[in-house]
Amino acid sequence: MSADTERDPPSGDGDVSRKTVPDREGQSLLEVRGLDAGYGDLQILTDVDMDVAGGEYVTIVGPNGAGKSTVMKSIFGLTSHMGGTVTFEGEDITGLRPEEIIHEGIGYVPQNDNVFASLTVRENLEMGAYILDSVPQDALDAVFERFPILEERQSQKAGTMSGGQQQMLAMGRALMLEPSLLLLDEPSAGLAPDFVDDMFDRIDAINDDGTAVLMVEQNAKEALRRCDRGYVLANGRNRYMDDGDVLLNDEQVRKDFLGG
Ligand SMILES: Nc1ncnc2c1ncn2[C@@H]1O[C@H](COP(=O)(O)OP(=O)(O)OP(=O)(O)O)[C@@H](O)[C@H]1O
Ligand SMILES: [Mg+2]
What we know:
By secondary structure, this protein is of the alpha/beta class. It folds into two domains: 24-105 and 181-260, 3-Layer(aba) Sandwich (Rossmann fold); 115-178, no CATH class. It has helices at residues 68-75, 98-104, 121-127, 137-146, 148-152, 163-175, 193-208, 220-226, 244-249, 251-257; strands spanning 2-3, 28-39, 42-53, 57-61, 80-88, 91-92, 106-109, 181-185, 212-216, 229-234, 237-243. The chain has a seven-stranded mixed β-sheet, sandwiched between helices. The protein has a four-stranded antiparallel β-sheet with strand order 3-2-5-6, with helices on one face. The longest helix is centred in the C-terminal third of the chain and has 16 residues, at 193-208. It is globular, with a radius of gyration of 18 Å. The chain starts with a strand and ends with a helix. Residues 2-22 have low confidence and may be disordered. Bound molecules: adenosine-5'-triphosphate and magnesium ion (MG). Residues 39, 42, 44, 62, 64-70, 111 line the site of adenosine-5'-triphosphate. Adenosine-5'-triphosphate is lined by residues 39, 42, 44, 62, 64-70, 111.
C-alpha cells in the first residue's frame, strides 16, 4: 500500500508509432506528471501524477468534486493547463486540442451529454470518425459486432435510446478510431443495477482485446475489483495508488473513500 507515491512507471522503448497496442502491452502509454489544471483561472488539480501502461485497466475513484472528471478532461485537452506534462506513447501531448489528441489514439467518453441526441445512432458513430475522409468500415463493423443493439437501432435518434444504450453508443463512437487508450468517465452512471454488471463486462471485453482503459467510477468497489490498478483522488490531488485489490482491501481507503 503506497500513499502519495507512485510505482516506477514502465519504461518505454522509444517506439512512438500508432497501431502498436499489442506490442506496447505493459509498456508506458500515458504519463501524467505534476499536472496543474483547472477552468479559466480556477485551479482544480495540483501536482497530479498518473500512468497507464499499454493494455492496462486503471480506475480513478474519489469523492464528488475531487477532480476526477477534470483529470480526464485535462488529458483530452479540455481544461486550462497550468503546469506539468501529459505524455502519450512517448510524445508530449500537453496543450494539444481534442481533435489532435483523438488523432494520437486517445478516445474519450464524457460523463454527461455524450451522444448527439438529435442525430441517429449511425450518424453518431460516423461522427466518431469525423477526422477521417471516409467512415472506416472495419471499425464500424467491429463496433456493431461489440454492440449489436447499435446495428439494430442504427436509424433511431440517439436521444430516444435508453440510458444504457446511449452509454454503449458513446463508447462505440469513441472506438471508431480504434484508440489505444479509452477514457471512460462514469460509464455506469444512471444505469439500473442489472445493467451495471453488463456495462462492466463490456468494458472488460474492450480491455481484453488490447485497448488500455482509464476509467472514473462512482461504483468504486466494483471498479477496483475489476481493474489492474487504481488511483484515489481527493481535493484535486493524488491520495493513494496501488493495485485495485490492494486499495479495495485497505482499511483506511475503505473507511475514507469506499463507504466502509
Ligand atoms: N467547467 C467548470 N468550470 C468551473 N469549475 C468547474 C468546472 N467543471 C468542474 N468544476 C469544478 O471542479 C471541481 C472538480 O470537478 P470534477 O467534475 O472534476 O469532479 P469529479 O471528481 O468528477 O466529481 P463527480 O464525482 O461529482 O463527477 C469541482 O469543484 C467543480 O465545481
Ligand atoms: Mg465527474
